[in-house]
Amino acid sequence: MTACVRMHGASLLGTHDFRGPMAKPQRMALATAICLLMAGLTFATKTLPVVTWLLGVMIAGIFLTLVRRLTALSRALHERQQPPTP
Predict the structure, then answer these.
(1) CA–CA separation, 28 and 21 (whole Å)
(2) Residue among 66, 40, 38 at smallest CA distance from 54
(3) What pLDDT shows up at residue 86?
(4) 10, CA 20 to 30 Å: which among 4, 20, 28, 40?
């Protein structure tokens, strides 16, 4: 969804917007950390619901990223529409 909003904004404005607390690099880093943590817990024979919690953090970050990108896109489109002041 974040990529769709970015691409839609790029088609309207001509520039890509990579802002947000859970853009692709951050999502991939969190997913990697989840995998490493789960591997470590497997070797330690521990069972904790960390995947559920960390995926919840990821979804919350994705939501904030979408809000930031859509807000910036809306602001840019509104500024583009306003006539210049004499």
Answers:
(1) 12
(2) 38
(3) 67
(4) 28
